[in-house]
Amino acid sequence: MEQAKIVLIILSILGGISSSPPLREVSPEFENFEEIIPLYKLPDSLVPSYYNVELQPILDEGYGTRFTAPGKVSINVLCLFATNNITLHALTLNISESSVQVREIVGGSEIPIASFDVDAEKDFFIINLQNGLRAGAVYQIYIEFVAPVSREVLYGLYLSNYTADDGSTRYMAITDLEATDARRVFPCMDEPSKKAEFEISIIRLPKYSSLSNMDLLRTETEGPGIPQGWVKDMYKRTLKMSTYLFAVAVSDFEVEEAAPGHYTKPVKVWGPPPYMQAGAGKYSPDLTAKLMTALENYFRVPYTFPKMDKISVPHFGGGAMENWGLNTYRLNRLLIEDGIATESDKISTAITLSHELVHQWFGNLVTLKWWDDLWLNEGFASYYSNTVLIDVGLEDILPLDTLVSDAIQRAMYYDVTSATHPVHYNVTTPTEIRIMFDTITYSKGCAMVRMMEAILTEPVMRDAVTAFLTKFEYNNAQQDDLFQVIDDQATSLPGTDLTMKAVMDTWTLQSGFPVLYVSRTEGSGSITFRQAKFKTDLNNDDDPTPSSWDIPISLYLPTDVQVNTSAVLWLKKDAPIEFFSIANVQWFIINPRQTGYYRVNYNRASIRPIIEQLHTNHEAFDPQTRSALIDDNLNLAYAGYSDLTDALNLTMYLKNERHLVPWTTFVTNMAKPYRFLSRTAGLSAFKKYIVGLIKDTLTEINIDPQPNEPIGNATILRNKLFEWACNLDDSECIQYSKNKFAQWMTDPSNNTIIFPDLRPFVYCAAVANGGDAEWDFALAQYSAANREVTKTNLIRSLACSKSVFRLARFGVSMISSVITTLSNTLNKAYDITDIQRFIRDNEPALQPVNGTLQTAIGNIENNIKWSITLTATPDQPLTVTGVTEDDERDFYIIQLESEIAAGAEVSIQMEYVAQIPTSGAGLFYREYQTETGEVRRLAATQFESVEARRMFPCFDEPDLKAVFELTVIRKDNYTSLANTELVSSTPENLVTLIITHELAHQWFGNLVTLKWWKEVYLNEGLTTYSQYLGMEAVSPDLMGVEFAILDAFQYSMLYDASEYSHPLSNDVTTPDEIDGMFSTISYEKGASVIRMVDGFLTRETLRKGLQAYLKKMSFQGAQQEDLFESLEEAAVADNRLPAGLNMADIMSSWTLQSGFPLVRVQIANETAITVSQERFLNDGAEDPEGSSWFVPITIVTADNPTLENNIPQVWLEKDVSSKAVAHDVSKWIMINQNATEYVSIEAALNLTRYMEQETHFAVWSTFFEHFNNIYVKMASHPGYSLLRDYLVPKLDAALTAVGVEESPSHTGALAILRADLLDWACSLQSPLCFTYANQLLAQWVDNPNTSPILSVDARATLECAIVAAGGKPAFDFVFAKYQDSGSNTELKNEFLNALACTTEISVMNELLNKTLNTTSGIAPGDASSVLNSVSSGALGRTIILDFLSENLEDVITVIGNGGLQPITGVLGTLQNYFTTKAQLDKLEAFVAAHQERLTPINMAIRLVIQRIQDNISWMDTTGFDIWMWLWFSS
Ligand SMILES: [Zn+2]
């Protein structure tokens, strides 16, 4: 067997994305949520008052079962209501039932026990008593148990370790219990309101020390329960506290103590000796002591525990934990090591330290009553942890400003996602409680505290906080308790008669937040306010119960000396609108500093002056306000509330911005467009925009960090801008990174060369823009690193490589060299999370090697889980000394130090990972497709006859029978089946696996070697290309291979278009120059050029040529001429080249010069296009050398739509800059469809840029054909206005050229072109069309009997435009025309269609109502087509479903003559135009409301819905790209 080497992991690939299930199913009899809670909560009959807990964590071999903690607990409980059972929490504990005793404390009489029950779902351990307990009596419960010291999870009591300087592994045991994990350490009443006092004892070996919440009372070296050689630390009794704050640590850590004078009580920091000896423990102790003093002074409530210990833990699930008196931390959140730690680490550490310290009051002293109010802990801790930093002199790190970008705006971002929930949120089960530890609780909670303080003013809020802490100390509180204290303190809120409770209920009991509409009439002093819930898509009108809030409105004016954040006005939740008058000022700011948790949507008259002010002097607004303006305006524009152009225009002021926080907001908001643009033509414009903005600031703060520059603004800002500059290929940034990295490569042990904060970006840029040398160096440093952060930075930099083949090698190296050699350090769940995050962060760059990386994860999991334990009965020590494998016989042999005694029963525990192949042997998987085409997988077993060994180590022979117990862990969207009935189930995430293959190559380089390094591509390019072929050959269906090669292609083009590029064949002499040849050019461009040869010669011919080359040059040195010669022979033999071309000329044009051509495709006339070439350069600069190439061009057209092979129809020769190609331009055309040619094509959308000068009918009709789909789909999208802005000038220009007004020259094709242009221009409401339409109406009214429109082609369009542009009078006029038109059906229909063009809602309703009334003048026979016309219009689409819904029966009886035809007609029209989720929801709601009536057309409805779903996904992909393209092209 090969278990150790194999890797698995599947079950849940492509499991389909199901929306997360409701948190709990509420059965009808439990409508009221509150009634369910008791089912998961402990009964109220008993209240604990005191625990005595003793634990003996066994970390070493030879003292009983290693990695367990035998323990004892006594619990004193007061009986409130008579009961005959005791319910405790216990989970993963091995409880000795025979040890359990219950006795009454007074008198000591024992209460006999009847039986025990376990409720696994609720984690209950129930002691049933023979006689009941009496109300009012106090009892003591005594239990002995064994708790695990877990190696698998980072909660409960668990194991961590570090590597000592001598290379040995040292262990520690630590607790992490919030929210519901105390029950994993000792039986207890594990709810926050069940507070009690604790006496804790730890039994340990003398080589360790222990810590707990309290001071040490004494250490005993002998006594009952203390094994020989162990000692017992006994701790003083705590004050009343919740179980989740219980803490113990057993370690051999070293300590740093705070200097005296900063605080009245001892403060100590503990950490692993290698870190402490490097001085990493010096930063935190004094800072902690100062913070304690500052917090005591601020809250005016003393800290009542005797000391404060802070311990760092190498493996920690969260960032830190506030256990009373013993805070626990992730290493880099407590220890700051010179030369390793970054400035950001220092800032995060300061904030984390103070966060945990605030919890000593908010959380520890006053605890939430239940987890539904978790924000009372976390919101306050998040807010005051920042404000208190000012009091200890850390204002440089801008704690108040960064709150805006890092907490408030982050909360707003999260609060509109589907994962959001109200701040106060009902939760009951441990799984639900865990969900509460999210951005809403922390960041929105923080926003709530900050908003309350802004409303009350700081002194009033502080008084309320002191009162709250005093009133509820050692007790529990709910949010209403807090609001009550505030309302008692501040008898009224400034500016309103509302109470704080009334206000805050609107903010804490519902999710989301409002957008405040602010309108000021130009030049007037009156402002109006109204509110609506903010949505990420304005068109989403699916808000069944409109939310509203009590909104405090604060104001900042140019005349204000100081920002005042308390409200001058309130917009109450039930008030539709408020007015406010201000003096005549140039501008005004609503909600300065974003203290109110809402967005402000100014009308144009209000935002324009603000933008102007930002551009002239942005410092008129403080940084928090500037940040808020950026965040609001970008997000409002993204969601379609306001104009994106205005928002982008606003951001242009950033050229002058030097403050961190507005920049943070900006770059955060640029992530989305960047992600989408990274694969589109808009990227270069985007780069220009961003780099243009950041350049000045980056230069001013200096790209190179200066010694002793202040922490805060400059450093963190540089980090952010530097990262963007490098990602966007800014040459200065890349050059800086390459230089620094090169210096480091010459002096690897020097850790002062690269500034710690910049390391991730410098490494990344250097590896991305470097060659094998940089790569190999980074990999070597990674292997040698002994600090987590260094490893993380380096592993991430490896992923930055632009070479997918290097990445593929990376995956392979990871497994073979890194993972295997580092299995000692990379063996924790933490490592997996980190690597998984790194894979996620680097999608899609890592897509091609995803399988390899997943394999690496599997290996680490192996390392974590790999352990073999043998226990024998009777007790006999069995030590594993080694394992061997016998591949031939499938044996796995465990060697033992001593023999197993005959007659002993041995239990073997092994952890392993099995493979799930597709073949039907062992555990295997199969795929099937659902009705909707979604691929699902299932796993099953087939063991007969010798395949069980493939799934688990076993005695796999038929006569070795045994009894089996089987557990299957699955994702919750799967079910499992086994031989016997299900006992219980636990969900867990499993990782996916896609198998990839190592790529082999031995020919190019070894068999045939280079003559000299000038043509490295002959080795590397050919090898890279054959790797690609190998990948494809071995696994043709492997997702991502094609993608990988295209990516390689694009990356090399990116590089090749830059100034760093070099020719494939390049004269080099010095070692440095030779080194430079191992570049993306030699690898990927080399491969891409060979791939192009594959295209134009065909693979068969290329293979012939390569074989001849290998044969001819075996064991010799080759140069490129040798290759060309062999290729030429093959090309001639197979007749692959047109006359006059030869391989040497073609190839030399690609290998002797750098760069590649941009092929432009333009329409020459109706029967031809021109293709032209010029060198493509990244910055669009002109090519001084006028380079050209032999360019093969493949073309597919409507007439010839499939490409048999990639043989080019056209060659553009070197020195020929352009060439005409016959083509019927009314048909579509695609150039380089398979992207085999190493060229960049500018066609498609960019072609349309030239349309303004175009008056060819055929060209325009192609254009209309292309854009019709885009126009229809985008009609309901926020991008519509951009599309309109893009098209209207082109249409108007062409229309002006053709002639808007009718003229005799408009005949034939020109008449049709004019009609088409008018149709488009009028639909897009072009001013040119509307002016003309009004003019026509006036003529017509003057002379009603003669239509001024002669053109048959344009008549319908213009009649429609007349109604659209002319309002109600035009409607009435055309309606009269309709009635007069007698029996002329064609004319009647034309007028009816025109009537549906109205843009006024009241008129539209009038028209719709007329269709239902047989006496209105609209004939019943015409009504149906009116409905269809209305449905296809912009306004009609939004109201037609409401109309149908209200009048369904009338529509069916009057219009449909009893049938459903009118409904089918409308739905059939809507399916073309509905493109958003909101529209689909609306349609589905309509269908649901009339389900019974619509049954006959169910099938048609299903097709309509399917079509709309297709539209939605089109909008999410192509539609978004087009939107972005329009945005950055306009
Ligand atoms: Zn916290």
Explain what you see.
With 1530 residues, the chain is an alpha+beta fold. The strands form 15 sheets. A seven-stranded mixed beta sheet has the order 4-7-2-1-10-13-12, with no helix packed on it. A hairpin with a 4-residue loop joins strand 18 and strand 19. Helix 13 runs antiparallel to helix 14 (644-651) and helix 44 packs antiparallel against helix 46 (1498-1529). It is globular. The structure holds zinc ion (ZN). Zinc ion binds next to helix 4 and helix 5. The site of zinc ion has 4 residues, from helix 4 and helix 5.
Topology, pairings included?
Elements: H1 37-40, E1 46-55, E2 68-79, E3 83-89, E4 94-104, E5 113-119, E6 124-133, E7 138-148, E8 156-163, E9 169-176, E10 197-204, E11 209-212, E12 216-220, E13 231-235, E14 248-251, E15 254-257, E16 267-271, H2 273-277, H3 284-299, E17 308-313, E18 320-321, E19 326-330, H4 343-359, E20 366-368, H5 375-391, H6 399-415, H7 430-435, H8 439-456, H9 458-471, E21 475-477, H10 479-489, H11 500-508, E22 514-520, E23 526-533, E24 551-553, E25 555-556, E26 569-571, E27 578-581, E28 589-590, E29 599-602, H12 604-617, H13 623-638, H14 644-651, H15 660-677, H16 683-701, H17 713-727, H18 731-746, H19 759-768, H20 772-784, H21 788-799, H22 804-821, H23 829-841, H24 850-865, E30 868-873, E31 880-886, E32 891-896, E33 905-910, E34 922-929, E35 935-942, E36 1009-1010, H25 1017-1034, H26 1041-1056, H27 1071-1076, H28 1080-1097, H29 1099-1113, E37 1117-1118, H30 1120-1134, H31 1143-1151, E38 1157-1165, E39 1168-1175, E40 1191-1193, E41 1195-1197, E42 1210-1212, E43 1218-1222, E44 1229-1231, E45 1240-1242, H32 1244-1247, H33 1257-1274, H34 1280-1298, H35 1308-1323, ...
Parallel strand pairs: 1-10, 16-17, 17-19, 20-21, 22-29, 36-37, 38-45
Antiparallel strand pairs: 1-2, 2-7, 3-6, 4-7, 5-6, 8-9, 9-14, 10-13, 11-14, 12-13, 15-16, 18-19, 22-23, 23-27, 24-26, 25-28, 30-33, 31-32, 34-35, 38-39, 39-43, 40-42, 41-44
Bound molecules: zinc ion (ZN).
